[in-house]
């Protein structure tokens, strides 16, 4: 497969990131398709998530990655050496997350090697560097997901870097000008600082020329995103909603359903109104002890994996490590070790403490083309 040819169509990662930005997750063929089975040992791994660079260029209140004083990179040489095995495992799409992937010193070499191997590339980005990198990016990536935290005042306050919204807007425009076929979506983390502005965030997504927007709650319960040991109650209270704010969130979601019906129908808003009530209102209510968290359907540990910038291999963003790729002969050796298989076979995603509070579950389907 050449660099200008699209990768196979499979939907991944909270209905926003895709192997190709179609079919939409709201389409009937996708909804009708059953999730890929949970098979052990893992022999089919369509999605691989890489943290190529450990640092970030934002200082967001809901994430501590930027607090790290250590800079790690997955080397281009190592990735080139691993690609044959990834293809043998059935990897169809690599999602570059992090940290800010665009900070990597040899990112385009990595992307070139992946595309030459027929593997599609998605970049998750703060958007601050998109304008400078747009021309190179569109040659290699068909899918970009940026963080949008609300209208300009909310976004700038949450990102906590100068001109964050202005630079994001310029980056989106630059990518679209370079190649309008590249899918550029937004992901908004709904939290205390922006939950009153969900409708305005949708309007901003339109004005920025984005193709789609997705909403998720803020993870406040795990040690992901450079939070060893997790957050104390003070940090949680700075991000999660309190009792007085739940009715306001309910009102905002009800108004969103009424005023943005066309956006739900078209898939511009990736989730359904019911899913947003479960993933936002029910989630923040459950954190306060009001009822249970919404049950999830997730096959991430069987169809995807995460490799962090220091080589740590996880089954998903939030679960504990399975090993380190620098200390093993292959990714498959880690994923299919007796310990990893036993862990997956004992995992009940509807009862597991981490899974029950998950804000970013994955239920990968493969509809017929």
Structural notes for this entry:
The structure is a single chain. The chain is an alpha/beta fold and 369 residues long. Helices cover 37% and strands 11% of the residues. It is built from 16 helices and nine strands. A nine-stranded mixed sheet has the order 6-5-4-3-2-1-7-8-9. Helix 3 packs parallel to helix 4 (107-116) and helix 5 (130-138) runs parallel beside helix 7. The chain is globular. The chain starts with 12 loop residues before the first helix and ends in a 13-residue tail after the last helix.
Protein structure class: alpha/beta
Query: Could you tell me the number of beta strands?
Result: 9
Mean pLDDT: 88
Strand portion: 5-15%
Please work out how many helical segments DSSP would assign: 16
**SSE string, helix = H, strand = E?**
HHEHEHEHEHHEHEHHHHHEEEHHH
The major sheet is characterized as: 9 strands, mixed
Physical arrangement of strands within the biggest beta sheet: 6-5-4-3-2-1-7-8-9
N-to-C span: 18 Å
Helix content: 25-40%
Q: What is the radius of gyration?
A: 19 Å
Q: Spans with pLDDT under 50 lasting ≥5 residues?
A: 1-25
Write down the overall geometry.
globular
Secondary-structure topology with pairs:
Layout: H1 13-16, H2 28-32, E1 47-50, H3 76-88, E2 93-96, H4 107-116, E3 120-125, H5 130-138, E4 143-147, H6 152-159, H7 164-178, E5 183-190, H8 198-207, E6 212-217, H9 233-239, H10 246-259, H11 261-266, H12 273-287, H13 300-303, E7 304-307, E8 312-314, E9 323-324, H14 331-335, H15 338-345, H16 353-356
Parallel strand pairs: 1-2, 1-7, 2-3, 3-4, 4-5, 5-6
Antiparallel strand pairs: 7-8, 8-9
